[in-house]
Amino acid sequence: MWWQQQAHQNGDNFETMGSVSFQHIFSPNAIGWARGMVRDHSSDLYSNPSSWPIIAFQHNYFKEGYFNGSVSVHHGRHEWKAGIESDVLFLHENFSDVIPSSGISQFDSGTTTSFAFVGSRPDLEQSAFVQDAIRLGKWTVNAGLRWDHYQLLVNQYGLSPRLSVARYFPSVGVNLHISYDRVFQTPSFENILLSSSPSVQNFEPFVVRQPIQKSRSAANIISA
Question: What is the pTM of this model?
């Protein structure tokens, strides 16, 4: 029938997640939190034989375990907070495609008509931080330092200092705020194993490939 000759692709996502959290008051000036989470996620792509210019299939899934713990302490002019965080994912990627004869003209010469990739790898991320909020009359100072570790295709560490100073001027009702923040940002892991694998050059010889690394950025903000 005529609709059986049309290109058709289906995608689906399934996720199962569970989490638990705990809070404990040590004293009127100290409190602690702990949170844990586990997650199972999968995403799929299916193509019928009439798909053009590529008949593609994908089955990606990962299992994740996450933990976060922190403690907050008030002492005099200070509001101290410190914590740790750990995130572990076990990534699995399975991708394949076939270029039908009617679609090969859409690609560069030398492109193979079929390709398959299977890969798995753990994504390990840990961090720790400490910060202090100091109130000195009309002045408020927030200072902190965060340490991050990221290990997937690369193994890297980073320190992120954070500082903000605020001054309130009651005579004009204005609060002047200046801050500096440096961020350690990890890349998205969607198809990261496939896009960084040398085997993609077997499919497309002119592709530019390199391991995707984390990014760093800094921001200075002045507001009133």
Answer: 0.79
